[in-house]
Amino acid sequence: MRKGFTTGTAAAAAAKAHAVYIMSGTAADHTDVVLPDGSRMCIPVSCSAEGAFAVKDSGDDPDVTHKAEIHASVQVNSGGRIEILGGRGVGRVTKAGLQIPVGEAAINPVPRMMIEQNVREIIGKANGAIITISVPDGERLAALTFNERIGIIGGISIIGTTGIVHPMSVDALVDSFKCEIDVKLAENRHIALVAGKIGEKHLQSIHTDAEAVMVSNYFGEAFSYLRSKGISEITLAGHPGKLAKLAMGHYNTHSGVSPQAQGFVGEALGLHRDFNTVEEICLTHPEGFGRIAELISGRVRADFGFHKTDVLLFNMKGDLIGVYNA
Question: What residues have CB less than 8 Å from 291, skipping those under 6 apart?
Fold first, then answer.
């Protein structure tokens, strides 16, 4: 599958291209960007007197910022210092716990380093610069990301740790929910995990102020990260068709890598017949799901060392059918 490059690489390419224009008058259509590992990547750019931009290329990764224009405008001065600002469409940090202080533009440390290093190649050590990064479509794109949930308002983040996007990046998803966990821990909030929005909606029907962390299928990564942070008490909420897989020891709950749970649930409830889905069991034998919640809690506590793991199970209608607190 085809690799791409990050918003950080696109921003560095745009900034470098405009620095070249300012210093030499040359409007390049490509520029070589130094990546964090010291290698170089040739990035297509468009450049004018006002600024330059690169089009983010996510390769075969289904990223919402694919094809987004990442713009940069460079003002060279004699001050020696490089200052990097966030313009239109770049989010602003409003909550503690992220890599960027509250109030700053959401341009992560590695992209900042890349932008400065690449512009410095062009302007030299003696000069300074004010570099403004902007994303014309950033506010719309941000609505499709987790940014607002972690307190980044008004646009996307300029991110990336290697400069390269690897296809189908599970890492990007895991990194996103780790950031959300960091924010909640910085606010001393209890951590509740759900697979997705439906789980969160049902949880909020019980606890109206609950803001759960959505981990998709990657409960194992979330559990390990929470334990590394010293967290010993969590809540899990969702449909037993997903969460019962945790009681089976499958911490990636994607259907492509873990079995369906209806056989396990039926056996645990002493039901000696075949079921097509766990939801079918929810509808016909809802009284037994406290036991399933207990099995989920027990397995997660045993495997990851949590002191307390509360479990709430909902059917597809959102009815609470199983609870275990321990």
Answer: 268, 269, 322
Convert the pLDDT of each residue in 172-210 to its tens digit. Answer: 789 889 989 999 999 999 999 999 877 888 999 988 877
Question: Angle at the Cα of 215 (from 213 to 219), degrees rounded to 5?
Answer: 115
The model's pLDDT over 74-92, given as tens digits with 9 standing for 90+, comes to 999 999 999 999 999 999 9
Q: Where are the domains of the chain?
A: 4-165, 170-324
In order of 9, 87, 105, 209, the CA distances from 153 in angstroms are 22, 13, 10, 20
Question: Smallest Cα–Cα separation from 192: which of 226, 165, 141?
Answer: 226
Distance CA 213, CA 197 (A): 10
Q: Are strands 164-165 and 4-5 parallel, antiparallel or unpaired?
A: antiparallel
Comparing CA positions, the residue from 152, 262, 250, 246 lying closest to residue 193 is: 246
Structure tokens at 190: 């209890």
Distance between CA atoms of 116 and 134, rounded to whole angstroms?
16
Quick one: fold of 4-165? CbiD-like (3.30.2110)
Q: Tell me the residue ranges of DSSP E strands in 159-256.
A: 164-165, 191-194, 213-214, 233-238
CA–CA gap between residue 189 and residue 209 (Å, rounded): 11
Structure tokens at 251: 């911490």
132 has pLDDT over 80: yes
